[in-house]
Amino acid sequence: MAKTNEPQEEVVQFYASSKRIHPKLAKGRFSNWRIIAVLMTQLVFYVLPWLQWNGRQAVLFDIAARKFYIFGITLLPSELIFLTGIMLVSAFGLFWWTTIAGRLWCGYACPQTVYTEIMLWFDHFFEGDRNKRMKLEKEGWTAHKIRVKAPKYLVILLFCFWTGFTFAGWFTPIRPQWLDLFAFGLSTTQWFAIGFYGFATWFMAHIMREQVCFYMCPYARFQSAMFDKDTLLVSYDAERGEPRGVRKKNQDNANLGDCINCTLCVQVCPTGIDIRNGLQYQCIGCGACIDACDEVMDKIGSPRGLVRYTTEAVLQHEYADSDIKKRLLRPRVVGYGMILFLVACGLVYGIFSRDLMNIDIIKDRGMMVRQNNEGLLENTYNLRLSNASEETLYLQAAVKGFDHIELTGLPPTLEIKAGDIINVPVQVATYPEYADKGSHPIEFEFRYHTEGNQEWRIIHENSNFIGE
């Protein structure tokens, strides 16, 4: 058979299914800190919606009523700039912290890794340690496997449902929602929020797990832009650890480094990487490999720190580990810190110095100008008054712009309850000789005080009067 020079067909796969990672349960100081961080973040998430403040839910983002409550602060739609400020503070805080200590946020507080860690706790509790889980995964669907996995899946589904229920409780009052759950009175929107976030928790934390960090999280991709040689990272000291080889406790062997190639650092890693291969974007900085390696070093009689939080500059002998704190005040850290501080100060000042009364003046376009029974030219306006305080406000209003001008439609003092948003139609009138054809600027003056503070605060709002 004659040989041909035709190119051979080659199949290239752009997707390869990943194997399930079964990390070994790490024990040590960083694992303990991680447990504390997981518990603290979940305490905030699950408990905060149940707290009460002045007879209402302490923290509630009530989209239906267009009011955001954060303890004693009420934010209205016209004040969404403050929510933008909160997001800016969070973003610059993350940049600042990443410059200092890498991906500690990912390892200790990111919702994805937090819920993945909780799912791993369920795995370990119901299925046993790493070897038992790997053996169970290879086993077919026998009665034994079903008996082990069924209660785990039930607990995971209940956990995801409760997570979705709590998520919905951040946006609708959670206590009435709890009663409606048993009375089958939840709305379609509530069921959607519960189902969506519950499903997302199950799919992302139980099914996808580390794949979210690998392929979906943008932070993993641009984090290196915020690193420098003084950033604290989980690092393997190759100079001390290489060459690798098995060695016993207190055994002198000049040809071997401290790494005995036990691979425990790989076995405990929740993303399944080998930290000895250097900095990798998959590393979430959780420190599990540090705990595993320190335990091995204790057993063989070598000092801890073969794998540790350190900087690239330390590994290059530019300074010692003890001098890391001195490198905190470097330009990048100071720059991010100053921006963070200024934005945070501006946000706090803006929230606590803002007017408690929000006023929108809307000109009635249905009737631009009319003549009333007294022969005065009259324009109609709609006042949208929002009380953003926790107390009743008392409001008085006046208008100026002509030698003779009248404001009608408001009582001498208008009482507005805490958190209320009301619409009040008012009329402004003047003599025809003062307002010829066209638009004339006028100014509303609003004076208000709270129930507990009798000092008047003044707001000026501009508008226009249409003459004929």
TrEMBL record:
UniProt key word Membrane: yes
Membrane spanning residue stretches: 30-48, 68-97, 153-172, 178-200, 333-352
Gene3D superfamilies: 3.30.70.20, Immunoglobulins
Residue ranges of domain 4Fe-4S ferredoxin-type in the record: 250-278
Pfam families: Fer4_18, Fer4_5, FixG_C
Record flagged with keyword Phosphoprotein: no
Keywords (A to Z) from UniProt: 4Fe-4S, Electron transport, Iron, Iron-sulfur, Membrane, Metal-binding, Transmembrane, Transmembrane helix, Transport
InterPro entries membership: 4Fe4S_Fe-S-bd (IPR017896), 4Fe4S_Fe_S_CS (IPR017900), Cyt_c_oxidase_cbb3_FixG (IPR014116), Electron_Trans/Redox (IPR051684), FixG_C (IPR032879), Ig-like_fold (IPR013783)
Protein name: Cytochrome c oxidase accessory protein CcoG
Species annotation: Vitreoscilla massiliensis
